[in-house]
């Protein structure tokens, strides 16, 4: 009997899924969802399917047969699985120490890749979507050179995930900056258009969609669960803005919208907190939202800013890319750090050798935690 046949027979006897296979499949489906969203905007699943989607479908079918589950019959059905079956589903059984069990890959309202999907797809040696964002910013820095020129371009990208023709005639527009960054923008995808326009979240300024595929009106309907934006966590204080004439608009690449524009609000809050406290700092070279503090005492203290929904995946990234400073404060939005279990999941996912060098904090607690870190550095000196 061949090894694969024997394995399947043993699994049928015990009812146990292949060890790790479900988790690997969840990761592959995350990459499929992200890539498919870029290829065809999720609306058309005509045969023949793209190669990456066909491979993911084939692997899903085989895994289902291995564990005695009825497999999906088509790519649209597999897409629906990604919308409704979370990481903790027995089919995937992704460890809770890696991804929250309720995590899905496709958003139920937006029917687009979730933020967690992009984070899962970025986990692994190739770095996925997050690595793509870092590569783009690295290329921009190489072209601009270190210093204010690069920071101006980076700031423009973070503040302008969508650019309309009218913006080019407004105050503060820089033709020089636009000439350096315009290659990072493209036309609006059809999948994001609503009523011949683009909805934009007033909080994160990222694209939004309505479950009813129509422009929401002010009132109770604008604050319910029928509205989705790429930020996912934004308060619904009002309806999304409508950008008309979408053919005259450009949108930032998805990787930069998620891993640059989204954490930019937290980055600005960090700078404001440092400035109010009179703490001198300088931006570090490179694609990360990172700063080095001056006059911090005997050790080097850095700050890195992120906006990640999955704390264990953030810890895994920092483990693979361990900071060089003596101590690094990892800043995430206050709302995320306040979630039950977020900080514990982050700390538990760190190896022991990094737990004394990395500390999770928020813009609100940054200065207090920084002063505590300074005291510890002086005590250890």
Short structural summary:
This protein is α+β, with helices and mostly antiparallel strands and 381 residues long. The chain contains 14 helices and 13 strands. The chain starts with a helix and ends with a helix.
Describe this structure in words.
With 381 residues, this protein is α+β, with helices and mostly antiparallel strands. The chain has 3 domains: 104 residues, no CATH class; 128 residues, no CATH class; 104 residues. The chain is built from 14 helices and 13 strands. The strands form 3 sheets. Strands 3, 4, 5, 6 and 7 form a 5-stranded antiparallel beta sheet that branches. Strands 9-10-11-12-13 form a 5-stranded mixed beta sheet. It has a 3-stranded antiparallel beta sheet with strand order 1-8-2. Strand 11, helix 10 and strand 12 form a beta-alpha-beta unit. Helix 7 crosses helix 9 and helix 10 packs parallel to helix 12. It is globular and about 60 Å long. The protein starts with a helix and ends with a helix. The N terminus is likely disordered.
Helix and strand pattern? HHHHHHHEHEEEEEEEHEEEHEHHHEH
Radius of gyration: 22 Å
Broad shape: globular
Q: Which structural class do you get from the secondary structure elements?
A: alpha+beta
In percent, how helical is the residue content?
40-55%
Strand content: 5-15%
**The number of domains:** 3
Question: Main β-sheet: number of strands, strand sense, barrel status?
Answer: 5 strands, antiparallel
The helix tally amounts to 14
Low-confidence stretches: 1-19, 219-223
Cα distance spanning the termini:
64 Å
Number of strands: 13
The overall pLDDT, averaged over residues, is: 86
